[in-house]
């Protein structure tokens, strides 16, 4: 595969084969689309790893208004209220859509959907499948639906390295596979490339997800939003290699407790205890670790021999690391888990660059504000994909010709960036470390080396974290520990403004 593919008919190109990308493609059917995914479907996508489920107000005691209120409370004053209302209202229809595509959610003996409860939800509203294997089941069903839809062409093992722009609009996609480089002319591109966990040393995400979509969008000229808001999950399995397996909040929901090596409870004096908000628990675990302790999640009394029946995926991950959670406390640590920020998009998923849409974790819709409510991200992926598809469908193809590309950027490598970003923009942040990070990342981001794109994204996150001189949701500054509740606006950054700010900081 090389040079320019002129015969593809300028169909929309969807980059990413997780739930957001596949749902966009299905919703656009029978209109022809191309889906590009750098790894085979069902691999290297957070979607396939989602455990808890998808939040939707479908229970008899629930309604979208309650779901909306919980979402706003978690977002700590920074959600876009109208966006949050739209997503939460669309929850029940999203479940219907997934059922239509063949997803087999867990049901009770009478056939009603079983609903789980997660932290900060006022009602049981987490729709799940095979216990803690929800993402895998959704991806199974969507992949099968995509494979039997003739209008969808899926190209696996194809990595997008650049978006082409001509006259201020998207004109093509520059991608690379084992057969070489290819330029796909198109004026309609949907980015559905997932999160940024792979930019950190410790993450629950597939390591190959390190914000490539953000780099593609920023370099093409689109604005990014809310970049400083990264959610660190407090209980990743601190054993068994990278990425770290997730030990879901639901385990604490069943009564498991956080202890240290002396068996002292570490959340005993914290309001909310073991089920306090995710960022509160993450900071407590982090502080205990940095004080030289070890932290464990002890489910031996609460679940004991029932552990594997309740949490088969987690039990398997523990067994692989040589731990039996029925009889032994599970070693845990915080890990980068979810990015609330992303490509700034409007309610149709349109970015600030003509011809570029985004959905799923890579999109900054305004749904999550400073902190994501558990299980709202799969909802965002499904509902956001629908909005994007509807918008793409009514946008006629443009006639811009992409320029012939001079050279193809090397495959990105985030290795150098991980320790820099982890030190500066982890669970606890402060000015000196962030400024050091900016100074180290600026020359890397401007180079033509494999580190350039990951460094650029890490740089933009560091600049955004420096600019927010308060603590809010997933963003905690030890030098500004209080929330500035008067601040309610979302903050966007472009490549140009981030580089300018970085040069001033590094001077
Ligand atoms: C362990 C774990 C558990 C979770 N549990 C839950 C849960 O219970 N409920 C919930 O709501 N959320 C959960 N989340 C979050 C949720 O899974 C994700 O936010 C969501 O699945 C993201 O979907 P997506 O389609 O946007 O991206 P992904 O599913 O991550 O897919 C990204 C796709 O983009 C492709 N890609 C990336 N870069 C390129 C490129 N340059 N070129 C071509 N392709 C590219 C990847 O190969 C992949 O196909 C969990 C996340 C993790 C990691």
Termini separation: 44 Å
Question: How many strand units?
Answer: 19
Sheet with most strands: strand arrangement: 6-2-1-10-17
What is the general shape? globular
Mean pLDDT: 95
Give me the Rg, rounded: 22 Å
Descriptive notes:
- A hairpin with a 2-residue loop joins strand 7 (159-166) and strand 8.
- This protein has helices at residues 19-28, 64-74, 81-89, 91-100, 134-147, 212-220, 249-253, 278-290, 307-310, 312-320, 376-393, 417-424, 431-445, 452-467, 495-506; strands at 13-15, 33-37, 54-55, 115-116, 126-127, 152-156, 159-166, 169-177, 180-185, 189-191, 224-225, 230-237, 257-260, 295-298, 330-339, 342-344, 356-358, 363-364, 492-493.
- It has 15 helices and 19 strands.
- The protein has 507 residues and is α/β, with parallel strands linked by helices.
- 32% of the residues lie in helices and 16% in strands.
- The strands form 5 sheets. A 5-stranded parallel beta sheet has the order 6-2-1-10-17, with helices on one face. A 4-stranded mixed beta sheet has the order 18-16-11-19. Strands 12-15-14-13 form a 4-stranded antiparallel beta sheet, with helices on one face.
- Bound molecules: flavin-adenine dinucleotide.
- Flavin-adenine dinucleotide binds next to helix 1, strand 2, helix 5, strand 7 and helix 6.
